[in-house]
Amino acid sequence: MSSRDSQPDWLAEVNFSRTGLIPAIAQDADTDRVLMVACMSREALIESARTGRAVYWSRSRERLWTKGEESGHTQRIREVRLDCDGDVIILKVEQAGGIACHTGRESCFFRVLKDGRWQTTDPVIKDPAEIYGHE
Amino acid sequence: MSSRDSQPDWLAEVNFSRTGLIPAIAQDADTDRVLMVACMSREALIESARTGRAVYWSRSRERLWTKGEESGHTQRIREVRLDCDGDVIILKVEQAGGIACHTGRESCFFRVLKDGRWQTTDPVIKDPAEIYGHE
Question: For tag attachment on chain A, is the N or C end more exposed, with fewer CB atoms within 10 Å?
Fold first, then answer.
């Protein structure tokens, strides 16, 4: 930890945007499939590294968001990577429930461009209404 | 193509930022390793889809940038994916030379957080001075 602000030293090499955020790509630690992309604040990244659970910054709710806090689909972090410019993070994760997307699919990237349109390639594993307990 | 502006219809489902850009993740089509992340403008995405070669928007040079135009490390696109929110693109690519990073490494994500610091895990495959022909 640096003595000045009790932030970890490794954070100095992370280049957050002017709004204080950095994009984070969550990849399945076993298959390397890209599951989702979200934003992290400094605090989110520190918390993720400290706890080993993926914590993001929710821009819509303007607060820290532990992935899976509602759905139960938490992400256990196996590895954290940083790119050459220091402005994108990768988390290699073990995805609880095998579902990262709020649509109930494994990955948010379930559409592929084919024959001039976006075609859905992945099944819904669990109904979102069931995941989020809508009444 | 839509008749109004001769842009392809599938583009309507892509949500560009207010600055007209969208992040694009290039993944190795065979291994799914994330190679790099760059930005695309509408034109970059249309050109990528039309030509099958990855074209990005260079924010530093403020112009379209065909990946590999200097280095020769072009990317042939095998698949284009879009996420649930329509605001991140994935390109599955065949990476010429096996080098995507300007540092001469396979991937830009060559640093892993371990024991409180960023540790380099990947070798330089080719000296950047050689790649870019610096004199």
Answer: C
Partner-chain contact A13 B118, CB within 8 Å:
yes
Q: Residue A115: left if φ>0, alpha if ψ -120 to 50, beta else—which one?
A: left
The residues facing B120 across adjacent strands are B111
Phi, psi of A63 (to 5 degrees): -160, 165
Residue numbers in A near B23 (CB within 8 A): 23, 37
CA distance B103 to B75: 17
* Cβ burial A97-111 (10 Å sphere, 16+ → b, else e): eebbbbbbbbbbbbb
Looking at the complex, report in whole angstroms how far the Cα of residue A11 sits from the nearest Cα belonging to chain B: 9
- Exposure of A18 by Cβ count < 10 A (0-12 exposed, 13-18 middle, 19+ buried)? exposed
Cα gap B111→A87, rounded to integer Å: 12
- The 3-class SS string of chain A reads CCCCCCCCHHHHHCCCCCCCEEEEEEEECCCCCEEEEEEEEHHHHHHHHHHCECEEEECCCCEEEECCCCCCCCEEEEEEEECCCCCCEEEEEEEHHHCCCCCCCCCCCCEEEECCEEEECCCCCCCHHHHCCCC
Q: Backbone phi, then psi, for A97, in 5-degree steps?
A: 75, -5
The predicted-structure confidence for A6-51, as pLDDT tens digits, reads as follows: 789 999 999 999 999 999 999 999 999 999 999 999 999 999 999 9
Reported as a single tens digit per residue, the pLDDT across A84-130 is 999 999 999 999 999 999 999 999 999 999 999 999 999 999 999 99
Consecutive H or E run containing B82? strand B75-82
Separation between Cα atoms, residue A61 and residue A42, nearest integer Å = 17
